[in-house]
Amino acid sequence: MLVTTYLAIIFLLALCVGLEITARRLTPPQSTPTALANPAFRRFQSIFLRAYLLALWADWLQGPYLYKLYRHYSFLESQIAILYVCGLASCVLFAPFSGWLPQALGRRQTCLLFCLSYSACCLTKLSRDYFVLIVGRVLGGLSTSLLTTSFEAWYVYRHVDVHDFPKEWIPSTFTKAATWNHGLAVGAGLVANLLAEWLHLGPVAPFLLAVPCLLCCGWVVLTDWGKEEARFSRSCHEGLRCLMSDRRVMLLGGVQALFESVLYIFVFLWTPVLDPHGPPLGIVFSCLMAASMAGSLLYRLATSTRYRLQPGHVLCLAVLMAFFSLFMLTFSTAPGQPRPHESFLAFLLLELACGLYFPAVSFLQGRVIPEEKRAGVLAWFRLPLNLLACLGLLALHGEVSGTGGGEGGSGTRHMFGGCAIMMLAALMAVVSLFTLGRNDTDLRLEGTRGEGEMY
């Protein structure tokens, strides 16, 4: 596995470079570079991205060695499953409030709260006490909920209401953030591996490195972001009303809940599946993130003027690929006959599907969910998402406990089988969505009949 992992990261990074060059060649010059030519906008964008990318970097640093840290502290898989469930349950608890807190406390103050809570979460990893680690997972759930809402809420509010920039410029900032995000994820795996394994500092080292990154993020927010008054909004209530009144939104939320809850379960399972076979976990994590980056670049190619695939088609393909990868895993994780190379390949295929999925679903959300209600709607989307993931991990915990607290055995295989069924349900929801909106121009890229590019 060691040689396979290093060969995989070299191949995937080369693939990403090749896809990026090809995508740039196929992308025509922007016809309206007004945003990039505006110095005030570029300065505002830079201030936002400095803080946001630091927050994302700190978040990614914690990905490769979380499970390994708990195993290092000699906890059983069933106990680790409960720790993960506590984090997901915290997300469930705070999800309805994550869209409301920026309005009640102020967006800037909520971003500062994120920096403090996530720093405290990282510091709890120094303790071997199970209760302290549970508190850390609760803080991590709160922080994750705030990361996915607060920074975006601050940016959109300042962009539109304070600086009065055109709304059409908003995607350029988040496209740039998404591009950087993939590179940060790959780099975080390499840095985490350097600290934990090459320098022999142990699995807690990446968490400690995340703390100064979060403090720097908080300093940027505190000094560079302008003050604002808290303003109460009924975004959660309005989001629920939008969700219930539009069947397209309901189906899209079902797709997101099913697909992304499987990803949460995958985050728990990939380490115990591969770690017994000795691969460097940080490099494995970088491979997974590079596969996701390749999927994102393939999305750009597929929806370019040359190939003209619709995001709905790409979404169907992504869900189908994810189903196939999970189906593979039900065979490669058979008890007593593990096939780590096949499992690694299936994980890479799942991450490639994720790279296709996220830009496609983001495009569709932007088309069917009004901008002013988006934060509230997405907060409601995360409720069933985290609940499904909690139920899955609790089921795994019950099966592992029933077999004496071992390394999962058939429980892992059964969990992948359940995830495959959930992905099949997500595929049915995608088909229903596009059957409902077969002639709906909101679900299609503009310019597929000669009207120009989507941007």
Q: What are the salient characteristics of this protein?
A:
mainly alpha; Growth Hormone, Chain: A; 2 domains; globular; Molybdate-anion transporter
Fold and architecture overview:
The chain is mainly α and 455 residues long. It has 2 domains: 45-225, Up-down Bundle (Growth Hormone, Chain: A); 246-436, Growth Hormone, Chain: A (Up-down Bundle), CATH 1.20.1250. Helix content is 77%, strand content 0%. It is built from 18 helices and no strands. The longest helix has 29 residues, at 170-198. It starts with a helix and ends in a 19-residue tail after the last helix.
Describe the structure in brief.
This protein has 18 helices and no strands. With 455 residues, it is mostly helical.
Count the E strands.
Answer: 0
What letter string, H or E per element, gives the SSE order?
A: HHHHHHHHHHHHHHHHHH
CATH topology of the largest domain: Growth Hormone, Chain: A
Low-confidence stretches: 403-408, 448-455
Number of domains: 2
- Quote the distance from N terminus to C terminus: 43 Å
**Structural class per helix/strand content?**
mainly alpha
CA radius of gyration: 21 Å
Count of helix runs: 18
Largest sheet: none
Question: What is the general shape?
Answer: globular
**CATH class division of the largest domain:** Mainly Alpha
What would you give as the CATH superfamily of the largest domain?
Answer: MFS general substrate transporter like domains
Please, what is the average pLDDT?
83
Strand content: under 5%
Fraction of residues in H or I helices: over 70%
CATH architect. name of the largest domain:
Up-down Bundle
